Amino acid sequence: MTFSKKLLVVGILATAMSGCMREYPKQTTEIDNISAAEITRLDASMHVDEADGTSLVHYNPLLRGERTVIEFESAVHELSYDHRKQLDAFLSEAEQYTDYAVVVRGHTNEVGKIEDNTPLAEKRTKAVATYLISQHVQPARITSESYSEREPAVFGDTEYGLERNRRVEVQLTNVVQ
């Protein structure tokens, strides 16, 4: 191989290698929107133990906690027998914790008018919260939120999507102190 060809090969390799050495910013993907309240809950769920001069940080896994989704028939807000059994199973999981809160989020699908869907989501949320209270969950532990059709679980107007969006999400979280 002639000198010019060797020089060309070395030049190409040097160029390729210099491209590999360039630092690119790490690519990240946002997989969850974490609100300030959730960050506060995370901070509250951590505590430090001093054991033999060593600091150990323990994380309470409740931050994202147990969760159940109650799906409703169209224009219905009353709890069925199956809904109550589902909530009872959720509550039996909650009993293993001493410090917890329950967040109840009511939703509707996009069928109908927003003026009708908003009160329907509120009635669904209230039905679930009322049942939880009847099962001896302290009202102070329950936070209720109604989103109507504004936060669909599934986009689109397929029967599957409409059914998934008629729901109340019930989630166990840490108590913010």
Automatic annotation (TrEMBL):
<dbReference type="GO" id="GO:0009279">
    <property type="term" value="C:cell outer membrane"/>
</dbReference>
<feature type="domain" description="OmpA-like">
    <location>
        <begin position="59"/>
        <end position="176"/>
    </location>
</feature>
<dbReference type="Pfam" id="PF00691">
    <property type="entry name" value="OmpA"/>
</dbReference>
<dbReference type="InterPro" id="IPR050330">
    <property type="entry name" value="Bact_OuterMem_StrucFunc"/>
</dbReference>
<keyword id="KW-0998">Cell outer membrane</keyword>
<dbReference type="InterPro" id="IPR006664">
    <property type="entry name" value="OMP_bac"/>
</dbReference>
<dbReference type="InterPro" id="IPR006665">
    <property type="entry name" value="OmpA-like"/>
</dbReference>
<keyword id="KW-0472">Membrane</keyword>
<dbReference type="InterPro" id="IPR036737">
    <property type="entry name" value="OmpA-like_sf"/>
</dbReference>
<protein>
    <submittedName>
        <fullName>OmpA/MotB domain protein</fullName>
    </submittedName>
</protein>
